[in-house]
Design a protein that fits this description.
The chain is of the alpha/beta class. The chain has a single domain, classed as TIM Barrel (Alpha-Beta Barrel). It is 41% helix and 16% strand. The chain has eleven helices and twelve strands. The strands form three sheets. It has an eight-stranded parallel sheet, with helices on both faces. β6, α3 (72-82) and β7 form a beta-alpha-beta unit. α2 (42-54) packs across α3 (72-82) and α5 packs across α6.
Length: 304
């Protein structure tokens, strides 16, 4: 298995263990959420991810992208202190978070070069390298600036082989995202479509899986019984259709209120309580391990 770039250097895929493929350790979403949207307390982050480690977790993918408050040096310190593998993201997010001065005045190739530099050299003048492209983003439609960001991500992927992960929340935009990336020569099998569980349309999930993309249910937070049961039903539909090898699970911790210390699910809900709920619903331990270990390992491995 190819190695995966973490904030402390390359790690063999076989060493990743139980992995969360869509989380945020440090992020600035103050624009939308005020103080609840700022994760910048290194001591608190360390405490929270230590709980994940102690529950059996090994790897967290921090998909905080350019302009959202990435902290490469802090990520490396947290990794070194806890022993967790942390993979850092790169690429450009969505409107209105895009730095229009950068996106509008740069060519697509210049934007791609910035992503490639993050992947091959280091982020923001550090030696800490990104290991995944994303999350790149759109919501109900893809704006012209977002299109440029997607094309840049695609060209960086073609140069490096690194997986692309997207934000496709609330509306079934993942198909259009795959279409745009395909125009730039990206194989859907190298794309993780994010927030699929925020789109309550099982046929949408199946359509993405049939194209070969990773179908990521990454807002699994246990906030209410309806959402938990719905996610279990949607997962069963994918498995019954033969797509257990296209499923990824995560929580998308991105607010202070999501943290264990603040009464939220923290980074542990998926691998503890949600795993128990899947077992009670008849999912075998082997199948759940595929969701949490084997599938993330395959999704993160660079293309040859």
């Amino acid at each position: 298995m190819n190695s995966v770039m973490t904030v402390t250097g390359p790690v063999a895929g076989t060493e990743l263990g139980v992995a969360l493929p869509h989380e945020h350790l440090f992020i600035d979403l103050v624009r939308d959420y005020r103080g609840d949207g700022l994760l910048n307390d290194e001591a608190l982050v360390t405490q929270e991810v230590t709980a994940f480690r102690d529950a059996g977790g090994s790897t967290i993918v921090d998909v905080t992208s350019i302009g959202l408050g990435r902290q490469p040096d802090a990520l490396r310190r947290v990794s070194q202190e806890t022993g967790l593998h942390i993979v850092m993201g790169t690429g450009h997010y969505r409107e209105p978070y895009l730095d229009r001065a950068v996106v509008d005045r740069s060519t697509v190739n210049e934007l791609a070069d910035e992503i490639i530099r993050d992947l091959e050299v280091g982020v923001e003048g550090t030696s800490v390298r990104a290991g995944i492209i994303g999350e790149i983003a759109s919501d109900r439609w893809i704006s012209s600036a977002e299109e440029r960001a997607f094309r840049a991500a695609a060209r960086a992927h073609r140069k490096t082989g690194i997986t692309i992960t997207t934000h496709a929340a609330r509306w079934p935009i993942g198909g259009a995202q795959l279409d745009l990336l395909a125009e730039e020569g990206v194989d859907p099998r190298r794309v993780i479509v994010g927030h699929c569980d925020m789109v309550p349309i099982p046929d949408y999930h199946l359509a993405l899986a049939r194209r070969g993309a990773w179908v990521q249910f990454d807002v699994i937070q246990g906030g209410n019984e309806y959402d938990v049961v719905s996610r279990i039903h949607w997962l069963r539909a994918l498995v019954d259709a033969g797509f257990e090898d296209r499923i990824l699970l995560s929580q998308d911790v991105c607010l202070r209120s999501n943290l264990l210390a603040m009464g939220g699910p923290g980074y542990v809900y998926v691998i503890t309580e949600f795993r128990r709920r899947l077992e009670c619903a008849g999912f075998s331990g082997e199948l759940i391990d595929r969701f949490l270990i084997e599938n993330p390992r395959e999704a993160l491995a660079p293309a040859n």
